[in-house]
């Protein structure tokens, strides 16, 4: 499990807060012959996991009941949305939960602002947000329950040249990298409508020409790549307000022209693609402070522009834009070091630029900017190897496919 807030209940009255993995016991003892019914009263605040109960009902015999299981796992992805920066729209897809194949929705493409770049869905699958680089706005959409259809909610102003956007794992905050003013804008999500409201301190300064932002899986820390001065800015996140504050070590050095960032979902490591020298920089994360310590650097293909880490924290993938490939790596669980897989690269299409991974670790999707499509792969659960799906590509329905968001 991740985070706090998980509460179990027995027989609609005996509450038990769960703080960590392990066994659990309710305070009220039941006599032999009494019935029990264990349910989830409230979920963790970390919405990337949903907890369910199995073997939750029965009758107490003369021994302790030990077969009630509570499992917290990522819910299946059902929808995907790709932004088309060259045609000011985004294309919606269904996701086959068994095969991972992307299918066209009955709903039409949705219009966006000018030059949509980053897109993110909130972790509960209620809303989607698009950073429109050309007109300095963020568009908010509601996601239809059961349909995945997008409906415009509102558009808010942000700083100049918004490029990267991320939602925190509690579903309360959104952060936008504004490349034109070297700042990150922070917003509070209205839980009912999806509207965005600027935080009390609406922007924080980062390095020169910021390019991407990522948060740790618990929503405690934020990291921003700065292409112009080859640094990585690091912040803590206030759990109540969402405000960003520089860490005790506020910046670390990257390679040349850092372009993208991904965090190990277990909160141990950070990986940054350096498009200017064709490398990936790795860092360890101090679990208490969030401070980064540089690790080894690994080679990539030509012009790496995106990086992703699978849900188990064992595999990493990098999109190489110039050569049209995806590099695949094993992650050393102790050191964070990247080692190329037995098959170190797989082909994508023309100018791959973004990677999205199924949160269950089964599928990978790569947007191809110039061929206007998405490459789809299955992920081998044991080796991490990528294999093109039976339907290996789908069209994005517009020009300059830029980014992709998956939603439950």
List its salient traits:
408 residues; mainly beta; five-stranded antiparallel β-sheet; four-stranded antiparallel β-sheet; 35 strands
Concise account of the structure shown:
The protein has 408 residues and is an all-beta fold.
Break the fold down into its secondary structure elements and pairings:
Blueprint: E1 7-10, E2 14-17, E3 35-42, E4 50-54, E5 57-59, E6 69-73, E7 79-84, E8 89-95, E9 102-104, E10 110-111, E11 116-121, E12 127-132, E13 137-143, E14 150-157, E15 162-167, E16 173-178, E17 183-189, E18 196-205, E19 210-215, E20 221-226, E21 231-237, E22 244-253, E23 258-263, E24 269-274, E25 279-285, E26 292-299, E27 304-309, E28 315-320, E29 325-331, E30 338-347, E31 352-357, E32 363-368, E33 373-379, E34 386-395, E35 401-407
Antiparallel strand pairs: 1-2, 1-3, 3-5, 4-6, 7-8, 7-35, 8-9, 8-10, 11-12, 12-13, 13-14, 15-16, 16-17, 17-18, 19-20, 20-21, 21-22, 23-24, 24-25, 25-26, 27-28, 28-29, 29-30, 31-32, 32-33, 33-34
Q: Pairing-aware structural class of the strands and helices?
A: mainly beta
Radius of gyration: 22 Å
Largest sheet entry: 5 strands, antiparallel
Count of DSSP strands = 35
The percentage helix is under 10%
Average pLDDT over all residues: 96
Ranges where pLDDT stays below 50 over 5 or more residues in a row are none
Shape: globular
Number of helices: 0
Strand content: over 45%
Alpha carbon gap, first and last residue: 18 Å
């Amino acid at each position: 499990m991740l985070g706090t807030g998980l509460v179990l209940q027995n027989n609609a009255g005996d509450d038990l807060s769960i703080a960590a993995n392990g066994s659990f016991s309710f305070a009220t003892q039941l006599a032999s012959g009494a019935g029990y019914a264990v349910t989830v009263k409230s979920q963790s605040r970390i919405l990337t996991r949903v907890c369910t109960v199995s073997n939750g009902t029965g009758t107490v015999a003369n021994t302790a009941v030990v077969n009630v299981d509570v499992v917290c796992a990522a819910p299946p992805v059902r929808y995907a949305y790709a932004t088309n920066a060259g045609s000011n729209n985004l294309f919606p897809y269904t996701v086959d939960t068994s095969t991972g194949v992307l299918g066209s929705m009955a709903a039409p493409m949705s219009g966006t602002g000018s030059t949509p770049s980053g897109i993110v869905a909130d972790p509960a699958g209620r809303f989607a947000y698009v950073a429109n680089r050309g007109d300095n706005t963020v568009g908010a959409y509601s996601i239809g329950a059961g349909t995945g259809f997008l409906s415009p909610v509102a558009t808010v102003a942000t700083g100049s040249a918004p490029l990267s956007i991320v939602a925190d794992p509690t579903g309360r905050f959104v952060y936008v990298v504004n490349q034109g003013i070297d700042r990150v804008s922070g917003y509070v999500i209205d839980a009912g409508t999806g509207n965005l409201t600027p935080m009390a301190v609406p922007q924080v300064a980062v390095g020169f020409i910021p390019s991407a932002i990522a948060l740790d899986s618990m929503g405690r820390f934020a990291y921003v790549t700065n292409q112009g001065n080859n640094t990585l800015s690091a912040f803590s996140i206030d759990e109540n307000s969402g405000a960003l504050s520089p860490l005790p070590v506020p910046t670390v050095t990257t390679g040349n022209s850092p372009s993208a960032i991904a965090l190990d979902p277990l909160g141990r490591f950070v990986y940054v693609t350096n498009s200017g020298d064709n490398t990936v920089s790795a860092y360890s994360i101090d679990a208490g402070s969030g401070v980064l310590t540089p690790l080894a650097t690994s080679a990539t293909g030509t012009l790496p522009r995106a990086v992703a880490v699978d849900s188990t924290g064992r595999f990493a993938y990098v999109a190489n834009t110039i050569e049209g490939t995806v590099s695949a790596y094993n992650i050393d669980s102790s050191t964070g070091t990247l080692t190329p897989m037995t098959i170190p690269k797989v082909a994508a299409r023309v100018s791959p630029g973004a990677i999205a991974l199924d949160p269950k670790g089964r599928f990978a999707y790569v947007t191809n900017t110039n061929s206007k499509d998405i490459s789809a792969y299955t992920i081998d659960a044991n080796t991490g190897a990528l294999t093109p799906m039976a339907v290996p590509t789908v069209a994005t329905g517009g020009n300059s496919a830029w980014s992709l968001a998956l939603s439950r």
